[in-house]
Amino acid sequence: MSDTNLDRRQFLGRASVALAGLAIAPGMLLYEFSQARPLGEAASGKVRWGMLIDTNQCESGCNDCVTACNEENGLSGGTAPTDAQWIRKVELKDTGSGRITSLPVMCQHCASPPCVDVCPTGASFKRADGIVLVDKHICIGCRYCMMACPYKARSFVHETLTDQLTDVPRGKGTVESCTLCVHRVDKGQETTACAEACARGGHHAILFGNLNDPDSEISKRVRAVATTQIRADLGLNTGVRYQGI
Fold it and tell me: What are 91's strand-pairing partners?
C-alpha cells in the first residue's frame, strides 16, 4: 500500500472517531446507543426485550404513560404536528357492542422491522436484544422509515432542541421513536418509564421484560393469556404484545 493511501486511511479513521462525538447542543454529544453499554457487555441475542400491555387495565383518559415518556426523554408533550410523540393513546370502538378499549401505541420493536429494511444509510437498526433504534450520526432525515412503519410510531425533529437530557440525546433533522428506555436497560434497570408510571398509578397495565426468558414474568403471562400483535398479518413478530383486543 502506498504512503498516500495509508495517510488517507489514517485521516478518515481519525475523522470518523471525531464525528462520533459530534456536538448538537452546548454540553451535549450524540453518542451511539450501541456504544452505551460497558465494553465487553454488548447487547445479547439471548435476550429479547418487550412489553405486554393489558388493555383491560388501561383506563380511558389516563395518560400517565405518555406523560412519563415525555419527562423521561425530554419531549415537549405538545400536540402540534411538529411535536415528537413516542407514545400515543388510541381508543378502539367495537361497532357491535359499543365497547371502547384504550391502549398505548408506540414503536412495536419488530423482529423484522420495515423501518430497518428501507433505511438507505443503516441509521435504523435492530440490536441483538430486539430493541429498534436510530443512529442519529448517520440519519439523513429522509423519513423513509416513517412511511414504512405501519404503526406510525416515528417522529421527525423539526426544530433546534435545547435543554436536552444527557441520557437521551436528540438532534434536529433526525427521526426518533420509543427506545424501550434503552438507557435504563443498559444501566441494568428493570423497567421502563411508562411501565413504572402505570404501576405507580395503580393500573399495572404495562409489563416490561425479557420475552426469551421462560421464567420471566412477561413470558409466563404471554403463555398464560391470549395475546395479540397489532397487524400480526404483516408477520413482523412484534416485541410489544396486547391483551384484551
Answer: 102
On average, the pLDDT of the chain sits at 86
Q: Which residues of 79-113 are buried (b: 16+ CB within 10 A; e: fewer)?
A: eeeeebbbbbbeeeeeeeeeeebbbbbbbbbbeeb
Options 3.40.50.2300, 3.40.1080.10, 3.30.70.20, 3.40.50.970; CATH of 31-243: 3.30.70.20
3-class DSSP assignment, residue 243: strand
> What is the pTM assigned to this prediction?
0.81
| Helix H or strand E segment including 195 | helix 193-200
Domain boundaries, the chain: 31-243
Helix (H) or strand (E) holding 3: helix 3-19
H/E segment holding residue 65: helix 64-73
Give the pLDDT of residue 43: 78
Is the model's pLDDT at 20 over the cut of 50? no
Grid coordinates representing 217 are 414474568
- The full DSSP string for 66-120 is HHHHHHHHT-----STTS--S-EEEEEE-TTT--EEEEEE-----SS-HHHHH-S
pLDDT tens per residue, range 56-84:
999 999 999 999 999 999 998 887 878 88
pLDDT at residue 14 tops 90: no
Q: Where residue 38 falls among pLDDT bands split at 50, 70, 90?
A: low
225: which residues sit within 8 A by CB, 6+ positions away?
A: 243
